Amino acid sequence: MAEELPETPETAEEEPVKQRKNGLYPGVSDELAENMRSGWADTELHDLEPIAQAAETAARRAALSARFPGERLVVPAGNLKTRSNDTEYAFRASVEYAYLTGNQTEDGVLVMEPTTDGHQATIYLLPRSDRENGEFWLDGQGELWVGRRHSLTEAGKLYGIPASDVRELAGALREATGPVRVVRGHDAGIEAALTDKVTAERDEELRVFLSEMRLVKDDFEVGELQKAVDSTVRGFEDVVKVLDKAEATSERYIEGTFFLRARVEGNDVGYGSICAAGPHACTLHWVRNDGPVRSGDLLLLDAGVETHTYYTADVTRTLPVNGRYSELQKKIYDAVYDAQEAGIAAVQPGAKYRDFHDAAQRVLAERLVEWGLVEGPVERVLELGLQRRWTLHGTGHMLGMDVHDCAAARTETYVDGTLEPGMVLTVEPGLYFQADDLTVPEEYRGIGVRIEDDILVTEDGNRNLSAGLPRRSDEVEAWMAGLKG
């Protein structure tokens, strides 16, 4: 990784360039500074078309404007976060900002200024690096170090929103009058500029509304989620093909294999992949992925590709490493499959959100009673939640730009709400028998099974977006055999 250059007298008076303490260059000669100012071609892009979701983001801003008339609304993208010393994590814009603009640039801010008939939106961004003062090659975030940015003119064409210099925004916000709301938690500088103009309660209302806007997906979003799922299906196929290499190494081979598909076809993984072999499958969010992969064990793979527009899949399959379920593994797997079937069948427009969870939990409770692991009757088990020792988590969640999407929505509109066409949720029952659970027979211990699919609520029922991956135990075995040749 190359080193940053030190600040120069020309730039020190404006904004000092951060100097690495042990950099190899003591300074910049006047001759070099002059040389770097000239000899560069004009790279302005003139024939840009709006981004694919420009019409959708405009409609979302219009809905937001209608909800908060007469108020200034400020939605930041966020800033780079330090990973260690002078290196940063890869940037991911806040969901609220990306949802309303389609832009994914660090330090960006959407401001919606109230007008007599709605709002005027402006997107505030960093402009191209200054060639005259040397910023483009002397600053650590200059374009010769981190890559070209769009000019403000280019950004206006791409996103359908007038663009201005974000470096002037904080000062303007300090002078602003009238009611203001800001989405908190992403940009401390912007929040500081508004500290005497906003309240936590009003800002939370803005965050909640933006979360609830995403409960029903538009056609563009459904298409992006299908893309994410389709790439995820291919990622699962990739993993099955290299299970022998994972056996020779560790769960990390599985993680790396899926990550390659996510980076080639999408932006990233939508969340830390859970590549849990053997008893690790009983740890619900096992993301260390450093354990052994052994023939005869199960592999619980919970992973999702995130598209370039931030929509993520969330799919789980529990696979026999050697391609064949044992009799006990199959019994447990089939119970989870039956629970998932009941849950998916309950996903219908007009149904209560909780219905799919209740349907799946009833099947699991019935099997646990049938196997003698908990004392019935089933109604008693469900009333007391006794099945949760072995199933623990809820049976699903909303899905979208966040893997657990719409999390700030009000309870009455989410878990106590009603399903509508366009909602996308996961259905993911599971059974987990911990390795140290003395209440179950020894042969059960260390077996964990989860099956998860991404379900779109339609006008007349539902559609399984992840139907490209087999679910039934015999189909899984046949699928794996085919991939292994």
Automatic annotation (TrEMBL):
Its EC number is 3.4.11.9. It comes from the Bacteria. Its cofactor is Mn(2+). Residues 52-191 form the Aminopeptidase P N-terminal domain. InterPro entries: Aminopep_P_N, Creatin/AminoP/Spt16_N, Creatinase/aminopeptidase-like, Pept_M24, Peptidase_M24B_aminopep-P_CS, X-Pro_dipept-like. GO terms for molecular function: manganese ion binding; metalloaminopeptidase activity. GO terms for cellular component: cytosol. SUPFAM superfamilies: Creatinase/aminopeptidase (SSF55920), Creatinase/prolidase N-terminal domain (SSF53092). It catalyses: Release of any N-terminal amino acid, including proline, that is linked to proline, even from a dipeptide or tripeptide. Residues 1-14 have a biased composition (Acidic residues). Keywords: Aminopeptidase, Hydrolase, Manganese, Metal-binding, Protease. One of its GO terms (biological process) is proteolysis. It is an enzyme of class 3 (hydrolase). Residues 1-30 are annotated as: Disordered. Pfam families: AMP_N, Peptidase_M24. Belongs to the peptidase M24B family. This is Xaa-Pro aminopeptidase. It comes from Streptomyces pilosus.
